[in-house]
Amino acid sequence: MLRPVLLGVCAAFFFAVTFVLNRSMELSGGSWIWSASLRYILMVPFLLVIVLARKNFQALWAEMKKHPAGWLLWSFTGFVLFYAPLCFSAAYAPGWLVAGTWQITILSGSLLAPFFFKTVETPKGLLKIREPIPFRGLRWSLVILLGVLMMQLEQAGRISFREMMLGVLPVIVATFAYPLGNRKMMELCEGRLDTFQRVLGMTLASLPFWFILSLYGLKASGPPSGNQIVQSGVVAVFSGVIATVLFFRATDLVRGDMQKLSLVEATQSLEVLFALFGEMAILPVAAPSLLSWFGIITVAAGMVLHSLMSRKPVAPAAWKMKKSEISG
């Protein structure tokens, strides 16, 4: 279990680049539309070279042709409905608030469990049942979220209600879209593709939506500046390629186990720490208050408790079902 967690932590570090640079681009006058679309457009050549070098593109293309509607739907959900709202929020709220609100994904990922099924062995034979919400891990996710809220409490009083709504509500949409799209694509692929293939496939499938958004951005705010293209390129490599591949690899290692999957997704709570330190380094952001430091300690403690609890064995879900559920 240590390897998926470490991969998740590394992914959180590279994902934090998104929040810092998106805010930086907004402060320099760049449009959120280009911040969103350029990241995925610029990801394509990097991922394409990797997949072609591994001679895996034909297998990916064959898989995408089997379920084109599924690839379009879940790529739109996992990439477009995830990243466009994050970039939109960066136009109205500082990076620390966006990163802090994003940690709701810790809860969102757990609450999505009933949307998925697993096959279990029962006295009546194999049966598909809904995944239960992992309440045991959810308790420690709430501890992590409490730490995040403590970190943001003082800063949140410095922004207007409008900034709060426009900077928070779109992120809440993203917190559900990202794990839902990721898990549904894992379910669709059933382990037939590696992480690089899956990320490239989802990126290619989401391109039509990014091109449409780019056309709107061209009309609404004109072409992107050279500085925004460069920063979007950095985000594409660090967050879009490196972080996404690391995170998808971590979730691949624990797919089928909602308890461990929730733990891997909980590692993303560290993004707020990395984003905070990143903003302090390159943007005019005040140092954390004493309350914020208590929040940091709470997040770390929640991560440790979540990790320890996830190692305890769980009784098979099949034997927890009612007789009517088994026979029905």
UniProtKB/TrEMBL annotation:
InterPro entries: EmrE
Domain of life: Bacteria
Keyword Membrane: yes
Keywords noted in UniProt: Membrane, Transmembrane, Transmembrane helix
Pfam families per UniProt: EmrE (PF13536)
Record-annotated membrane-spanning stretches: 32-52, 72-93, 99-117, 137-153, 159-178, 199-217, 229-248, 293-310
Protein known as: Multidrug resistance efflux transporter family protein
The species this protein was found in: Weizmannia acidilactici
Lineage: Bacteria, Bacillati, Bacillota, Bacilli, Bacillales
